[in-house]
Amino acid sequence: MSKLAKRIIEEAARRGDPKRRDDLLRYFKEPIETYGLSQSQNKELAQLFYSEVKGDLPAALALTEELLATGNMDVSSVGLKILDRFRSKLGAEHFPLFDKWVEYLNNWATTDHFTAHHISECIRDNPQLVEQLITWTGSENRWRRRASAVTLVPIARKGMMLEEVLRLADRLMMDMDDMVQKGVGWVLKEASRHHPQEIHEYLQRWKPKSPALILRYASEKLPEELRVLKTR
Question: Looking at the chain, which residues constitute the CATH 1.25.10.90 domain(s)?
C-alpha cells in the first residue's frame, strides 16, 4: 500500500467517532466497516489530500483502488470523492478497471456513489458498454446486480437510453434481493420523469410477476392514475 493511502487511512481513523460508528452499524442492514465519519468529514479529507494527486489521473485511479480495496466505507468515500474531480476525464478505456472495482463493493452507499458518479460517465458517452452492464445482472454478487441498474440512474434522469434501461430492467424485475429491487425501481422511477406512459405500460406488463417493492419505487414519480402497485 502506498504511503499516501496509509496516511488517509490513519487520518480517517483518527477522526473517527465511535458513537456515530455504532449508529451506522445499526443503520446498514449489511455488515460494514466504518470509522464513523460523516459525509462532510469524508469531503474534508478528500479536499485535504486531493492536492497530492491533482492533475494526475493515473495516480488518482491507483489511490482510489487502494482505498476501495480496504472495504472501509469511509476511506472508500474519500477515494471516490477525490476521483470525482476527474470525472470529465473518464472514458470507455476505464471501464475494465471499474469492472474490477465492483468486486470491492460491500454496501449500497459506496455502490451508489461509484456507479452513479463514475461508471455512469463511461456509459453515457459510450452506450455500447451497456451490453457489458447487462451481463452484470446475472452475477451472484448482489452489489454488481444493483450496480448495473444504478449506473443508469443519472442517464435515465435525463430521459436518455430508455430502451437500454428497459432491457436491463427486464433481467432484474424478478430479483428477490431487496437491495437490487430498490436499484431497479430507482432507475425506472428516474426514467418515468420523461417517459411516464412508457414506464406505466412496462410496469403493467410486469405487475403479475414483479415484487411489490420494485413497482412501488418505480411508481413514485408517476401521476397517481399511472401508478402500478400491488394490491392485497
Answer: 98-232
- Please tell me what DSSP assigns to residue 189: H
User: With 0-12 CB in 10 A as exposed, 13-18 as middle and 19+ as buried, what is 17?
Assistant: middle
Q: At what angle do helices 3-15 and 73-84 cross, to 10 degrees?
A: 120
CB 197 within 8 A of CB 226: yes
Global pTM reads 0.95
What's CA 155's distance to the chain center, in Å? 13
3-class secondary-structure state, position 169: helix
- End-to-end Cα separation, the chain, in angstroms: 54
CATH of the domain spanning 98-232: 1.25.10.90
pLDDT tens for the chain, 232 residues long, are 999 999 999 999 999 999 999 999 999 999 999 999 999 999 999 999 999 999 999 999 999 999 999 999 999 999 999 999 999 999 999 999 999 999 999 999 999 999 999 999 999 989 999 999 999 999 999 999 999 999 999 999 999 999 999 999 999 999 999 999 999 999 999 999 999 999 999 999 999 999 999 999 999 999 999 999 987 6
**H/E stretch holding 112:** helix 108-114
Closest CA to 169 of 148, 190, 154, 155: 148
Report the C-alpha gap between 230 and 175 in whole angstroms: 16
34: nearest Cα among 15, 62, 7: 15
